[in-house]
């Protein structure tokens, strides 16, 4: 086999809590193939196929915590209830049989949920201040008792993940969903301890992380995904400068996050207009000293949001720019979304230098679970 220029992607990864065979992470991608919230054998086979073909860590699609208004579809997997957890147990078994590692992405969509959708259509949608991403009043602010129940639901999911044999958890704190609605000033105008300045707006996430940590004990990886952008505002910024980013991240670090998954649409974009080339994962690693995952259009020439807004696919591109950054140690791990949704063999092809066999991303691939 010719010497492999992508070899840094295939170096093992070791941190205080996490050991992986290589640097390739499957990004969480909602698929909607779990009727009644129960992931079946087809879901297990889908993830197993990626593990067999060299993905170092799989982060599952967003899976709903035990709250009546967590989700907007009856086909998104639950992470509660005997049947769904039994289904996830089968997923873990299948991935481990193939030598892979897997973490569930724990999800509550907050006030992005349209009224009348999901498993409990009558349940009102909830968010920190009752405001949707456009800042429109959709309902009452969450009470402190309701917030306590939500935190307990995350912690129960974390405990269940550990019990089922998962290799850690990822908390979905990105893209304008519940945790991010607490982070963002547009959706969080609370005047109690869960609201205020950027640091105070981390309070909910901090309590979620602390409760999860209590539930799983030390040594079990807790990852946090966050993003500057929101589903309706790509130019939104939680942190306008590296100093603000540091203020935002520190309480999460102190609470017990092990790895940050820094969600961007294009990994090569500098996080700040301060002249530094570092992307969000680069800055996050530099500021916290913790391992980070980068993501966004790796190997593809159009960003993923074009799929949802315009039903567009994407062509393949080289990954030299990514490798240069990985070699420099800007970030530790690289999440791959659509390229892996489309092609379970993506990692293997890169490893074997079969770049010419990489497939363009086709929107049709979202309709099948292969
Ligand atoms: C079909 C689809 C579903 C997605 N669902 C989720 C999700 O459940 N949770 C999440 O954090 N991100 C989700 N994303 C975003 C991806 O994790 C990833 O960040 C994004 O696709 C960018 O990576 P890519 O350019 O390699 O595709 C989804 C993306 C796609 C294409």
UniProtKB/TrEMBL annotation:
<dbReference type="Pfam" id="PF00724">
    <property type="entry name" value="Oxidored_FMN"/>
</dbReference>
<dbReference type="GO" id="GO:0046872">
    <property type="term" value="F:metal ion binding"/>
</dbReference>
<dbReference type="InterPro" id="IPR001155">
    <property type="entry name" value="OxRdtase_FMN_N"/>
</dbReference>
<keyword id="KW-0408">Iron</keyword>
<dbReference type="GO" id="GO:0051536">
    <property type="term" value="F:iron-sulfur cluster binding"/>
</dbReference>
<keyword id="KW-0560">Oxidoreductase</keyword>
<protein>
    <submittedName>
        <fullName>NADH:flavin oxidoreductase</fullName>
    </submittedName>
</protein>
<keyword id="KW-0285">Flavoprotein</keyword>
<keyword id="KW-0288">FMN</keyword>
<keyword id="KW-0479">Metal-binding</keyword>
<keyword id="KW-0411">Iron-sulfur</keyword>
<dbReference type="InterPro" id="IPR051793">
    <property type="entry name" value="NADH:flavin_oxidoreductase"/>
</dbReference>
<feature type="domain" description="NADH:flavin oxidoreductase/NADH oxidase N-terminal">
    <location>
        <begin position="8"/>
        <end position="357"/>
    </location>
</feature>
<dbReference type="GO" id="GO:0010181">
    <property type="term" value="F:FMN binding"/>
</dbReference>
<dbReference type="InterPro" id="IPR013785">
    <property type="entry name" value="Aldolase_TIM"/>
</dbReference>
<dbReference type="GO" id="GO:0016491">
    <property type="term" value="F:oxidoreductase activity"/>
</dbReference>
């Amino acid at each position: 086999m010719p010497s492999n220029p992508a070899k840094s992607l295939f170096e093992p990864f070791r941190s205080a809590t996490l050991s992986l065979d290589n640097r390739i992470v499957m990004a969480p991608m909602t698929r909607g193939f779990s009727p009644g919230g129960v992931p079946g054998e087809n879901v297990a086979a889908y993830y197993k196929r990626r593990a067999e073909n060299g993905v170092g860590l799989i982060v599952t699609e967003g899976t709903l915590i035990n709250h009546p208004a967590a989700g907007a579809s009856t086909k998104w997997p639950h992470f509660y209830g005997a049947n769904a957890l039994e289904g996830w147990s089968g997923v873990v078994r299948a991935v481990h049989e193939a030598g892979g590692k897997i973490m569930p992405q724990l999800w509550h969509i907050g006030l992005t949920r349209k009224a009348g959708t999901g498993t409990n259509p009558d349940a009102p949608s909830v968010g920190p201040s009752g405001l949707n991403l456009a800042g429109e009043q959709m309902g009452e602010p969450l009470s402190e008792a309701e917030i306590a129940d939500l935190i307990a639901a995350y912690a129960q999911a974390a405990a269940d993940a550990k019990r089922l044999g998962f290799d850690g958890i990822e908390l979905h704190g990105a893209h304008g969903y519940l945790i991010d609605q607490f982070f963002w000033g547009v959706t969080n105008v609370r005047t109690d301890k869960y609201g205020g300045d950027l640091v105070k707006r981390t309070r909910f996430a901090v309590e979620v992380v602390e409760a999860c940590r209590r539930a799983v004990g030390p040594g079990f990886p807790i990852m946090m995904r966050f993003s500057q952008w929101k589903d309706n505002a790509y130019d939104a910024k939680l942190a306008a400068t590296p100093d603000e980013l540091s203020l935002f991240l520190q309480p999460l670090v102190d609470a017990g996050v092990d790895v940050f998954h820094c969600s961007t649409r294009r990994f090569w974009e500098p996080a700040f207009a301060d002249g530094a080339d570092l992307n969000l994962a680069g800055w996050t690693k530099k500021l916290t000293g913790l391992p980070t995952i980068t993501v966004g259009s790796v190997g593809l020439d159009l960003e993923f949001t074009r799929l949802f807004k315009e039903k567009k696919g994407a062509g393949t591109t080289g990954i030299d720019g990514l490798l240069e950054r990985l070699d420099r140690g800007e970030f530790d791990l690289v999440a791959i979304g659509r390229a892996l949704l489309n092609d379970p063999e993506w990692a293997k092809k890169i490893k074997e230098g079969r770049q010419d066999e990489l497939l363009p991303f086709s929107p049709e691939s979202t309709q099948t679970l292969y």
